[in-house]
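Loading example: each entry is read as four labelled lines plus one structure line.
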Amino acid sequence: MGDTLYERLGEKPGITVLVDRIIDLHLQNPVVGPRFQHADVDRGRAMAKEFFVAGSGGPEPYTGRSMPEAHRGMNISEEEFLAVVDDMMAAMDQLGYDQRERDEVLAIAYSLKGDIIRQ
Amino acid sequence: MGDTLYERLGEKPGITVLVDRIIDLHLQNPVVGPRFQHADVDRGRAMAKEFFVAGSGGPEPYTGRSMPEAHRGMNISEEEFLAVVDDMMAAMDQLGYDQRERDEVLAIAYSLKGDIIRQ
Amino acid sequence: MGDTLYERLGEKPGITVLVDRIIDLHLQNPVVGPRFQHADVDRGRAMAKEFFVAGSGGPEPYTGRSMPEAHRGMNISEEEFLAVVDDMMAAMDQLGYDQRERDEVLAIAYSLKGDIIRQ
Amino acid sequence: MGDTLYERLGEKPGITVLVDRIIDLHLQNPVVGPRFQHADVDRGRAMAKEFFVAGSGGPEPYTGRSMPEAHRGMNISEEEFLAVVDDMMAAMDQLGYDQRERDEVLAIAYSLKGDIIRQ
C-alpha cells in the first residue's frame, strides 16, 4: 500500500465503506445512537467521508463546518467521544485494517477531542 | 399561601420570575451552558413557564411538545440532568421559597427524569 | 402510620427490609454494581441501616463516618448518584411505600449529594 | 534514539521523570485528583514506572496486579480515563517527546481501556 494514510485507507472507495460502517455502528450504539435518531444521517455520512478524505491527505477538500461549529450546542460528553472512537476502531478492525492505520486514525481522533467535547 | 403548588409558587408572576432565574443560572452553568448558547432561549423560557404553570396545577395548559419529544436527539446525561435540578433548587433558594416547595419541585423533576435523559 | 419518617418507614424492621432491598438492587445495577463487588457489603448494609434510622428521626445514632469521609477517594459521579437514588425509589415502590415517604427520602438523598459526589 | 519505545522514552531515567510528571498532573486534575487524595501515591508511582518500563519493551518486569485487578471496584468512568490520557499526553508534550512517541503511548493506553473502565 502507498504512503499517505489516504492511500492506506483505500482511497475514496475504502473510506466510503469505512465511514458507512462506522456510522452503522453509531446508529446501534446505545451511548451515541440517540444523537442520530432524528439527525440528517445522510448528510452526516457525506460530511464524514469528506472529512476522512481531506484529513488523511486525500485530494479533495472538506466542505463542511469546522469541528467546533459542527458540534456547537451538542454538549458531547467524554463517554460519547470514546464511544465514537470505539466504533471507528471496531469498524477498522472488522474491515481488516492494520494496527498502524488504526493507531493513526486514533491519534487524529484524539487530536480533535478538544474541538468536539462540550461545545 | 394557597394550597396548590401553583399558588405557593406565586402563580404566574412568581413562576415567571422563577423560570427566568433558573434559565439565567443554566446559561452560566458550565455543565449545561453549552446547550443554550445556540438555542432559542426565548422560546425555551416561554415553554418552561407554561410547563411550570400547568405542572403545578395552574389554570393554563402547556402547549409545547411532550418531554421525550422536546429532548429527542439531545442525549442528555445524568450529569446534565442533575445540573438542571441544582439550578432549579438554587433559584428557589435565592428567591426565598420554603423547603416544602423545593421538595415538591424536586419530586416533579425527578419523576420526569426518564423522559429527559438519553432521549 | 405515625408522624416521623422513622415511624412511617416502619421503624427498625421496616428500614432493615428496605435497606436490604436497596443494596440488593445496587449489586445488580450495572452503573454501581462494580463498586460493591469487592467491598464489605455486610458492613455497608449495617451502616446504611443506622444512617436511615438516625436520618429519619429514629432513636438510635449513626456510628459510621461522615458522608464525605465515607466516600473519600471514591470519586462518585452524578450518574452513580442517580443510580443509587433510582434503586432507593424502586425499592420503596416495590415495598409499597407511598409517594409522600418516597418524596421525603428523595429530598434527604438530594440534600446529601454534595457530600457524596466527587469526594 | 533507539528503536524500542523503551529506548525512545529515555529508558528508566526518562520513564521515571515522565511518570512523576504524569502523576503530579493527576493530583491537580479536578476530574481524577480525588482518587489520589487518600491513595498510596508512592506505591502508585512505583507501579506505574514498572508498568511503563515493561510495557514499552524495557528489560524489567511489571510486578503489580493485572490491570482489571488493579482497578477492581473503582468504577472508573470514561471521563476519568480520558483525563488520565490527557495528563499523559500533556506530560509528554511538556518534556519534549515527539508526536511519534506520544501516539504510541496513546495507542497503548487506548488498548488498555477495557481493562480499566468500569471494573
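The mean pLDDT of chain C is 96.
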